[in-house]
Amino acid sequence: MGEVLDGAAVRRWCGLAAEALGRTRAEIDALNVFPVPDGDTGTNLHLTVLAAAEAVEGLPGDAGTPEVWRTIARGALLGARGNSGVILSQFLRGMAEILGGRGAPPPDGRVLGEALGYAAVLARHAVEHPVEGTILSVLDEASAGTGDEPTLSGAARAAADGARRALR
Fold first, then answer.
1. For tag attachment on the chain, is the N or C end more exposed, with fewer CB atoms within 10 Å?
2. Which residues form the DhaL domain (predicted)?
């Protein structure tokens, strides 16, 4: 990850996230055991992010960062599938509010950590009875993993490491 998180970078990230979830959705579906082992979490996450990516594709090429984030959040909400999709849409809403808000500072590691923390709280509030050991725990650990990392790329790596730890 570079040190600039502008509209073009956010747009690319959303497309790459949709592609990655498309490739791994069967694996995620097989891991799905909570709240019921219905085997659709990977598919629901993929369809939710795909809706966000498709919404962003409709923006002009020069769309600014706030507009891209708002479009991702709205696309995810409108395209959310299942509980996991709703949780993810609320997480993306939180990211959009911090990273794409009016007057938002250019994100560095600390701002990314703040956005991840706020987004994890919104995701948790989307669930009536939050349960540990679910995607909520992964989001919490990703957020906590950033610590005081000053650089954007360092915070992104630390968040990914935190998420991986939650999966062990």
1. C
2. 8-168
| pLDDT tens by residue, 85-116 | 999 999 999 999 999 987 777 889 999 999 99
Domains of the chain: 7-166 (1.25.40)
Written as six digits, the tokens of 120 are 């994890």
What pTM, to 2 d.p., does this model score?
0.92
User: How many CB atoms lie under 10 A from the CB of residue 15?
Assistant: 17
Amino acid at 119: A
d(CA 2, CA 96): 19
Dihedral over alpha carbons 121, 126, 129, 135 (to 10 degrees): -70
Q: CA 160 → CA 63, 107, 110, distances in Å?
A: 27, 17, 15
The sign of the CA dihedral 122, 116, 144, 113 is negative
How would you class 146 by CB atoms within 10 Å of its CB: exposed for 0-12, middle for 13-18, buried for 19 or more?
buried
Q: Is 129 left (phi over 0), alpha (psi -120 to 50) or beta?
A: beta
